[in-house]
Amino acid sequence: MKVMLEKLESIVAAEITVYRALLELARRKGAAVIAKRMLEVHEVQEAEGKLIEQISQLEPQRQFAVRKLCRDCGLDAAQGHVSMLVAQLGAVAEPLQQQANELRALLDDLKAVNAANAQHIRENIECLQGAIDAIRLNCAAQENYDASGDRRSRALMIDGKV
User: Fold this and answer.
1) What are the tens digits of pLDDT across the range 31-89?
2) Which of 44, 118, 142, 158 has its CA 20 to 30 A from that of 17?
3) Coil, strand or helix: which one is 152?
4) What span, in angstroms and rounded, lies between the C-alpha atoms of 33 and 121?
């Protein structure tokens, strides 16, 4: 059981490392969105995708270790989670409890940063929509001419571009 507990602690430590990197990328993405540096946003999203792939590989490993430890402790493996293990194992699992607390705090921070980023993105979209609407209104008020110089009645310049 000690070996599996150490393995679980190692897996959670790896998850913490990945989530820290995700949090840093989320903060970087927020700054890039605010500054309208879309190339940087794209680069950050690619890096986030790679980290999310790492998480998708670590999560099943963690779940397996938790289920195994729960079975070893006589707990319901299907309903088992880290908090149950810590309660069952006591002081032996104190490092795991500290890791779980750190991971929860990271996830809370990540949720907050992602919510702020989503708000910034919505604001940018609203700003762009306002600019597009202003262009449409301005173009609708003007008459356009075709290549021969003849007037095209009420044609919008944006219609030719779209």
Assistant:
1) 999 999 999 999 999 999 999 999 999 999 999 999 999 999 999 888 888 888 888 89
2) 118
3) strand
4) 7
Phi, psi of 151 (to 5 degrees): -75, 135
How far from chain centre, in Å, is Cα 59?
A: 16
**Cβ 85 vs Cβ 75: under 8 Å:** yes
Span 95-147, pLDDT tens digits: 999 999 999 999 999 999 999 999 999 998 998 888 888 888 877 656 555 55
What does each C-alpha distance from 3 to 12, 65, 68, 69, 134 come to in angstroms? 14, 10, 11, 10, 65
Vertex 56: Cα angle to 39 and 34 (nearest 5): 25
**Residue 45: what are its φ and ψ, rounded to 5°?**
-65, -35
User: Quick one: three-class SS letters along 32-48?
Assistant: HHHCCCHHHHHHHHHHH
Residues pairing with 101 in the sheet? none
Whole-prediction pTM:
0.78
Residue in the structure block whose two tokens are 């006589």: 74
Measured CA angle at 83 (ends 77, 87), to 5 deg: 95
